[in-house]
Amino acid sequence: MVTGGAAGIGRATATGFVKEGAKVAICDVNPEAGKTTAESLGPEATFQQVDVSDNKSVNDWVESVMSQHGQIDVLVNNAGITRDGLIMRMKEADWDAVLNVNLKSAFNCTKAVSKTMVKQRSGRIINLASVVGVIGNPGQANYVASKAGIIGLTKAVAKELASRNITVNAVAPGFIETDMTASLPDKAREAMEAQIPLGRAGTVRDIAAAVVFLASDQAVYITGQVIHVSGGMYM
Ligand code: NAI
Q1: What distances in angstroms separate CA 221 from CA 22, 105, 128, 202, 207, one per listed residue?
Q2: What is the pLDDT of residue 111?
Q3: What does pTM read for this prediction?
């Protein structure tokens, strides 16, 4: 199950799972993009319109995936938004929207799949954090707080579910070319790229590879970790 799977990192992750032979259920708040992506992924992919910040919407999605497939092996909490602004001018609505879509969503989805994974005695949960959740970023107090929260959630749930053979990890991307970063002015982009030791923005495939690895048999002994995929932005 991949949230926010219609575009960007979510779409690349769903593509990576399909290539590995998995059945993939994506959800997204954007129905047109979601349907198009699911069609392009082929018959092993399904799409449901879900607002991940809405508990009921998430529970309905998990129920329908369970009734279709009877098991849930992997959850990727990927959906995310930005509403940037300096703290002095940040609107309460922008704080709430980012915390709800980026962090409450992970609570909603993790809680909804956890009963099934505990019963199965197996499961993988992979959360999309961000390098800024560790190093901070001016103008993104809401986003940074949500991503730092994701890291805390990852570690707490990893400890709770480890005895049931469920691993919980986070991938922290750096600066990745997607719709989320496309609107940045050239100057801001250049300043960002100057902070990347590997000298380039990342691609969605760079991130998808780490997510697919964490879901694979190779990653069976990794839990509670944050894997930074940022070209060295954080060391
Ligand atoms: P994106 O904007 O390209 O795609 C995000 C997807 O999530 C979109 O399809 C959007 O419709 C969906 N979405 C938004 N709100 C939703 C909601 N309430 N319910 C369901 N779906 C919703 O973003 P991108 O860049 O692919 O980001 C994916 C994740 O990676 C996010 O959590 C983001 O914070 C994180 N990330 C991205 C970085 C980047 O440089 N692009 C850097 C660090 C982290």
Answers
A1: 21, 26, 19, 27, 20
A2: 98
A3: 0.98
CA atoms within 13 A on the CB side of 45: 26
Note whether 196 and 149 are within 8 A (CB).
no
Cβ atoms of residues 122 and 169 within 8 Å = no
Whether 234 is catalytic is: no
- The rounded distance, in Å, linking the Cα atoms of 156 and 172 is 17
Our mutation pick for probing the ligand 1 site, out of 11, 28, 47, counting the most ligand atoms within 8 A of Cβ, is: 28
Of the residues 17, 47, 95, 143, only one is catalytic, namely: 143
The preferred substitution site among 3, 178, 184, 193 for testing ligand 1, maximizing ligand atoms within 8 Å of CB, is 178
Gap between the Cα atoms of 222 and 210, Å rounded: 12
- C-beta 101 within 6 A of ligand 1: yes
**Within a 10 A sphere around the Cβ of 211, how many other Cβ atoms?**
29
pLDDT at 183: 84
- Tell me the mean pLDDT per 10 residues along the chain, length 235: 98 98 98 98 97 98 97 98 97 98 99 98 98 96 99 99 98 95 87 93 98 98 98 97
Dist. CA 165–CA 50, nearest whole Å: 28
Alpha-carbon distances, residue 190 vs 139, 175, 235 (angstroms): 17, 11, 20
Q: What integer pLDDT is reported at residue 175 of this predicted model?
A: 95
